[in-house]
Structures are given as structure tokens and as C-alpha cells.
């Protein structure tokens, strides 16, 4: 790195080590009363289980990309897991058990999503600029996409699928250099075509369709803002505007999930919390662990149970990588199931 890392996705390969900077419908505990510093009040999340501890080889652990499979299990990736440790895990949230799903000696996977087209699990390899797919059991690894897009390599971060199975990818290119070279890229479902939908972005991070697939939300980490791309029926951009400015203080915008009512759940890097906004930009709530929870630094992403309101967010820090649960404001859909 040329400067101190700003978030958990600035990745450097050195001496074989990775250093990274920066289901049911049952409800959770009742919400706490509104706190004085968060518009809309605070929803207290509660610990489900610890999934990982900091790795000796990388000095940290970082959970991301929670997404429910058709078997009801939650798939989670550990961005910093070294070779031999599980890089993709399958979690039974009811039994509170976890089993390894995939590992390899190369990938730094920052998101996970199941395709509506072929049912395979797609992972973004931020370090190597690739998108990898696995079968539902974690095997049959294939490189789905790699190489340059419009003459420049990608640092793919998160994925959103449209209803036809095309991928919309947040490309965080330029983060390590501190320049606004980030992009939103659409990759056809066969991996043969890649097009830039938006560029000149400041560390593009979260990406998610709205509730009706009429547009795409995306966040920019180093500007703490969320923008909206309106799309036509062919997936072409018809307009773009800044929609929400996140008052995060020392925290920065991470991944985005959208529930059935169109509300946005925005992960915060630098604070173990998520901010919730209405599609009109109103701050509805802040979701965070109890005050006594220590050693947690970031809440990267969330998956809301499809058809239910039970939500699971990935939270990480020096204490390890955890799953926390809370009651979402509306039911889960594909847009609120990882990314």
C-alpha cells in the first residue's frame, strides 16, 4: 500500500500473505429506544455466533457476503482467510453450526451471490480482478470473468444480479492510489460481454437493485455517498444522481442491501453498525450490537431471510468474525440477500 489502508478491501499481496485494509420469520428482541445521535433510533442486534478468529498469517479476519442458499443455510466469505482456512463457509443459523465450503491458495473473496440463471455461487476476487463461480456444494470452481474492461483491470467488490442473471459489479479500482477510478460494470450472464455503466467513482463498494428492478443503488466508500442509476428495460442507464449522503463520522459506507419495501441497509466500515434509509433518503434507524460488545470494528453486509424479517449481519474486528441478528423493517428478497 502507498498509504495507510482506508477500508477492508484495499488488498496487497506481499510475501505470499494478504493484508487487507480496509430461515424462518421469527423476530429478534424488541427494539431499544431511540438514541440521541442516530436519526430514527437504534435497533439492537444480538450475537448469533462467532465464525472466525483473526488469522496468524494475515493478522485479521473479515466476514462478508452473507447470502442464503436454497437449502436455507447462510453462505459467508472470509476475505482474509489464508490458504487452508475456509474462505467460504456454510452456516446453519438455527443449529449455530458452521462447515467449510471452499478454500484455495489464491482468492481474496469480498462478496457472494447465487445466480438466478444457473443457481451457482458467484464470488468476487478483489485481489486478482476475477469473478469465480462454484456449484452449490462449493466445488467445481470456475473462473467466470477476468481481464480488462474498457482497457483497465477491475477490483470487483460486490455483485447484484438482475432477473435474467446478468451481473452488476461494483469495481473499486483506484482505491489503493486514492483516485476516483471506480466503476459500475455490467457483465452478461455468459461472461462474454462487460460494459461500464458509470465511472469516475470514489472507491465503489455496495451495489443493489431497488425493490422493482427499475434502478441500481451504489455506494462510494471515500465520499460516503450513495447514488442511483435509473435503468431502462434493456438495463441501460437513463439517469444518474447522488441520492443519499451518509453522515458516518469516522465510519465509511460499505455494502448495500434492499428489503421488500425498498429500504436500504448500508454497512459501515469503522463502526460495527448499519444505517437504514428509506428509498427517499430518510434515515430510519441504526442497527448495532449492544454497547458492551467489544473488539468489533465493522459491519460489512446483511442477509434478510427471504420472505421473512430475520436478518443476519456480518461483523468483524480484533475479537473475530461474528454473525449478529436483528428484526428487519420489511421482508427479505433477492436484493436483501448478500452481494
Short structural description:
The protein is an all-beta fold. 0% of the residues lie in helices and 48% in strands.
Descriptive keywords:
single chain, Neuraminidase, disordered N terminus, nine-stranded mixed sheet, four-stranded antiparallel sheet, 339 residues, mainly beta
What does this structure look like?
- Helices cover 0% and strands 48% of the residues.
- It has one domain: TolB, C-terminal domain (Neuraminidase, 6 Propeller), CATH 2.120.10.
- Strand 27 and strand 28 form a beta hairpin.
- It has strands spanning 11-14, 17-20, 42-44, 46-52, 63-68, 74-78, 88-92, 97-102, 109-114, 121-125, 130-134, 142-145, 148-149, 152-153, 156-161, 167-171, 182-187, 194-201, 204-209, 215-220, 225-231, 237-245, 252-258, 264-269, 274-277, 283-288, 298-304, 310-317, 320-327.
- The strands form seven sheets. Strands 3, 4, 23, 24, 25, 26, 27, 28 and 29 form a nine-stranded mixed beta sheet that branches.
- The chain is mainly beta.
Amino acid at each position: 500500500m502507498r498509504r495507510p489502508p482506508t477500508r477492508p478491501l484495499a488488498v496487497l499481496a506481499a510475501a505470499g500473505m494478504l493484508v487487507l485494509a480496509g430461515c424462518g420469520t421469527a423476530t429478534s428482541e424488541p427494539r431499544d429506544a431511540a438514541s440521541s445521535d442516530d436519526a430514527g433510533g437504534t435497533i439492537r442486534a444480538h450475537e448469533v455466533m462467532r465464525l472466525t478468529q483473526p488469522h496468524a498469517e494475515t493478522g485479521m479476519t473479515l466476514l462478508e457476503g452473507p447470502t442464503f442458499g436454497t437449502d436455507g443455510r447462510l453462505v459467508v466469505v472470509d476475505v482474509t482467510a489464508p490458504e487452508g482456512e475456509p474462505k467460504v463457509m456454510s452456516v446453519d443459523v438455527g443449529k449455530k453450526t458452521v462447515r467449510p465450503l471452499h478454500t484455495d491458495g489464491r482468492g481474496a473473496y469480498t462478496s457472494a451471490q447465487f445466480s438466478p440463471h444457473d443457481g451457482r455461487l458467484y464470488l468476487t476476487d478483489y485481489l486478482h480482478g476475477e469473478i469465480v463461480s462454484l456449484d452449490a456444494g462449493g466445488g467445481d470452481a470456475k473462473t467466470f470473468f477476468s481481464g480488462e474492461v474498457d482497457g483497465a483491470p477491475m477490483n470487483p467488490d460486490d455483485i447484484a444480479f438482475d432477473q435474467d442473471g446478468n451481473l452488476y459489479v461494483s469495481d473499486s479500482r483506484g482505491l489503493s492510489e486514492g483516485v476516483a477510478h471506480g466503476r459500475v460494470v455490467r457483465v452478461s450472464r455468459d461472461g462474454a460481454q462487460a460494459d461500464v455503466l458509470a465511472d469516475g467513482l470514489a472507491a465503489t463498494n455496495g451495489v443493489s437493485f431497488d425493490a422493482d428492478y427499475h434502478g441500481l443503488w451504489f455506494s462510494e466508500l471515500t465520499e460516503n455517498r450513495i447514488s442511483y442509476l435509473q435503468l431502462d428495460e434493456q438495463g441501460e442507464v437513463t439517469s444518474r444522481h447522488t441520492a443519499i449522503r451518509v453522515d458516518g463520522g469516522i465510519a465509511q459506507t460499505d455494502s448495500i442491501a434492499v428489503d421488500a419495501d425498498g429500504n436500504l441497509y448500508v454497512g459501515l466500515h469503522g463502526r460495527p453498525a448499519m444505517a437504514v434509509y428509506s428509498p427517499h433518503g430518510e434515515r430510519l434507524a441504526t442497527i448495532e450490537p449492544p454497547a458492551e460488545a467489544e473488539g468489533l470494528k465493522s459491519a460489512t453486509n446483511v442477509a434478510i431471510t427471504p420472505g421473512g424479517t430475520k436478518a443476519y449481519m456480518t461483523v468483524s474486528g480484533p475479537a473475530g468474525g461474528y454473525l449478529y441478528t436483528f428484526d428487519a423493517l420489511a421482508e427479505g428478497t433477492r436484493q436483501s440477500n448478500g452481494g
